[in-house]
Specification:
Blueprint: E1 17-20, H1 24-32, H2 42-48, H3 50-53, E2 78-84, H4 87-90, H5 93-104, E3 108-113, H6 120-125, E4 131-134, H7 139-149, E5 154-160, E6 172-177, E7 184-186, H8 187-194, E8 201-203, E9 206-208, E10 237-241, H9 246-255, E11 267-269, E12 272-273, E13 279-280, H10 282-291, E14 296-301, E15 310-312, E16 314-316, H11 328-332, E17 341-346, H12 356-365, H13 368-377, H14 385-392
Parallel strand pairs: 1-3, 2-3, 2-4, 7-16, 10-11, 10-14
Antiparallel strand pairs: 4-17, 5-17, 6-14, 6-15, 8-9, 12-13
Helix pairs in contact: 5-13
Amino acid sequence: MNWSATKMKTSPVLPTVVLACAVPWLSASHAAAGEPPPPDSAAEHSASHADRSNRAFYPAKFDLSKLPHYRPEQQVSGTLRIAGNNYIGDSELAAWWRDAFGKFQPGVKFEFNLPSAAIAVPALYFGVADVGMNHEPHFYDHLAYVRMMGFAPTGISVVTGSFDVPGWQDCIVIVVHKSNPLSRITMQQLDGVFGSVRDGGWVGAIWHPEFARGPEQDIRTWGQLGLTGERANQRINVYGYTPRYATALEFSNRVLGGSDKWNGDLRAYGNWRRPDGTVYGQAAQILDHLKADPNGMAIVRYSPKFPADVKVLAIAWTEKEPYIDYTIDHLQDRSYPLWGDQSFWVNKQPGTKLDPKVREFVRFVLSQEGQALVQKDGKYLPLSPEIAREELKKLE
């Protein structure tokens, strides 16, 4: 099974809101004392991107007129508890969703607990949230959820990742040194370059032996990618993120069949706090090494100050299909194969209906009104009508 060729593109009377922080004393106590927040805390993380939080980076360029308008199927009430992704709370998006939804559903009040996407799925299975916003959960998130709940969580994609805004799910690109003549690559070739022999892979917490592949699909030299001359027999030096990090998980799920079997020569990086307290980011480390390596290829998230010393490759699902450049339009319509997203994860037991207030809120966020607020915020990208329709089917 050539699994990598599978093309999955796929908040009058306003409600009361409680903006909850997982550790409310953390930022307040240090701020009162005139001290910086503790290293690696949610407060420090939010402060690190404060200059981006309330800024719109993109013009309102996408036509949302074919998205469905939100029309309540029923009037609902109660408290809607949303946990996880801090970026919708660091920006104004969560409050905008809340206020706009409240014009249609004044009987709903909100509780937000948004220190980190890391708490999204645990908050669901411990029963302290109705919606958890996160990217694809890690293996133990899936496993713990199934152990606790008896069924898998349902993920509903509600935004596409940003084009170049760090933190707002800025999407993955494949880069080589600027001197490299290579300009494009397929998803299967990426598996060959960054992956290794495997006996299967994971979807959530379910093992799939059909994702196996042998060593004959490994790609370790530039000649195997079609380059000639002196470079043909030189090894491809691969760079990327530590496999413990969400970016590596996202890439593995999309390219490596959900496997943990990476190229054994992968040079992987994580954020490093220097002795002077400054942080040397993982993406900066990857790019600094690649700039000095004519034989390097790297996985990295795109950012606005991408160095001129590297080149972004176009990507195709297969060699018989178009190679797609990394552009904001190709990202928003998800024709670019390595698009990213953020999802609402919810408790929906098979054969049962979703909690009515959760269902109505998800329908609102997937509507023209909800996605217009994503576009207004100017960081995440709004869904296309086709994607929104597919996600709405998950509510049935």
